[in-house]
């Protein structure tokens, strides 16, 4: 087994296998008002001043949490299940969803899938501990700790890390109402996280941009492009995409990193991916410049396609 294979084995990335089959974003084809509130912009977005952001953060957080609590407490079908008055982990999600909205941890995939997987894992661990009722009664806190650890592992493997998901897993073992719900806790968490994300799209996009991406900022759809090569109607678009992403490179047999033909590590800005050499750290301002360049390239490709 060569070093490149070992490197990939010990740096497992699920997206390496999923992304080739994920289609490119088609938000640009939506009517303007819809694509705007889904995070699409025709030109790089500039964040408003902090004094303008703060009132919007306050209103969005209040609206998101009140919407979930209102539905959980007064929605006839859900209220009959006697769910928790307020799922504590959603408070932490609100800080990410409506405040630090540019963070990878705050994007829809992480919010919805992260909470969902954490709920499944948390309830599963809780159910296992409940097989011994006396043990669970005295050591539910151990069940909560095991559930959180397992949820953290699952989110890491699936690239859906959302810190409040850890609290979701803990609640499944330590919150009486959540324990009583059992597996019903899972669809309730999916609904709650989806509602929070909906509010984030509606209110954040009034003055800001959310989300930054729906699945990943990396390149996607390579397998789909290969499949479409036989279609002459799509050939022109493929050539355009190839031109936008073409660069002279080969793979370093020692590190597995892509380098240029002279053996020097390079910065690559593609439509859906930015690659930086591991030894280069960028400041926030430099990251914004790179993202703006990527956005211009992505917009050109989408409009041209």
From TrEMBL:
<keyword id="KW-0472">Membrane</keyword>
<dbReference type="InterPro" id="IPR058581">
    <property type="entry name" value="TM_HPP"/>
</dbReference>
<feature type="domain" description="HPP transmembrane region">
    <location>
        <begin position="49"/>
        <end position="211"/>
    </location>
</feature>
<feature type="transmembrane region" description="Helical">
    <location>
        <begin position="136"/>
        <end position="157"/>
    </location>
</feature>
<feature type="transmembrane region" description="Helical">
    <location>
        <begin position="51"/>
        <end position="72"/>
    </location>
</feature>
<keyword id="KW-1133">Transmembrane helix</keyword>
<feature type="region of interest" description="Disordered">
    <location>
        <begin position="223"/>
        <end position="258"/>
    </location>
</feature>
<keyword id="KW-0812">Transmembrane</keyword>
<protein>
    <recommendedName>
        <fullName>HPP transmembrane region domain-containing protein</fullName>
    </recommendedName>
</protein>
<feature type="transmembrane region" description="Helical">
    <location>
        <begin position="177"/>
        <end position="203"/>
    </location>
</feature>
<dbReference type="Pfam" id="PF04982">
    <property type="entry name" value="TM_HPP"/>
</dbReference>
<dbReference type="InterPro" id="IPR007065">
    <property type="entry name" value="HPP"/>
</dbReference>
<feature type="transmembrane region" description="Helical">
    <location>
        <begin position="78"/>
        <end position="99"/>
    </location>
</feature>
């Amino acid at each position: 087994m060569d070093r490149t294979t070992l490197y990939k084995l010990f740096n497992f990335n699920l997206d390496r296998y999923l992304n080739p089959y994920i289609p490119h974003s088609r938000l640009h084809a939506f009517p303007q008002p819809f694509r705007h509130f889904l995070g699409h912009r025709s030109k790089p977005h500039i964040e408003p001043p902090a004094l303008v952001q703060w009132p919007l953060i306050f209103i969005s957080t209040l609206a998101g949490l009140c919407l979930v609590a209102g539905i959980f407490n007064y929605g006839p079908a859900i209220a009959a299940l006697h769910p928790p008055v307020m799922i504590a982990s959603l408070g932490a999600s609100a800080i990410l969803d409506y405040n630090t909205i540019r963070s990878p941890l705050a994007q829809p995939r992480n919010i919805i899938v992260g909470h969902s997987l954490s709920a499944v894992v948390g309830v599963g661990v809780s159910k296992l501990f409940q097989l011994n009722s006396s043990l669970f009664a005295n050591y539910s806190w151990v069940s909560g700790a095991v559930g959180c650890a397992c949820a953290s592992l699952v989110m890491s493997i699936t690239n859906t890390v959302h810190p409040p998901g850890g609290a979701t897993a803990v609640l499944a073992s330590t919150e009486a109402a959540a324990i009583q719900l059992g597996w019903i806790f899972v669809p309730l968490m999916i609904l709650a996280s989806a509602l929070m994300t909906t509010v984030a799209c509606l209110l954040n996009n009034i003055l800001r941009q959310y989300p930054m991406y729906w699945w990943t900022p990396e390149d996607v759809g390579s397998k789909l492009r290969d499949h479409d090569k036989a279609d002459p109607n799509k050939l022109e678009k493929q050539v355009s995409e190839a031109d936008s992403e073409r660069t002279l490179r080969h793979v370093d047999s020692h590190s597995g990193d892509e380098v240029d033909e002279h053996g020097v590590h390079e910065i690559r800005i593609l439509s859906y991916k930015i690659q930086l050499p591991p030894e280069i750290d960028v400041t926030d301002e430099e990251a914004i410049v790179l993202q703006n360049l990527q956005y211009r390239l992505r917009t050109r490709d989408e409009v041209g396609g």
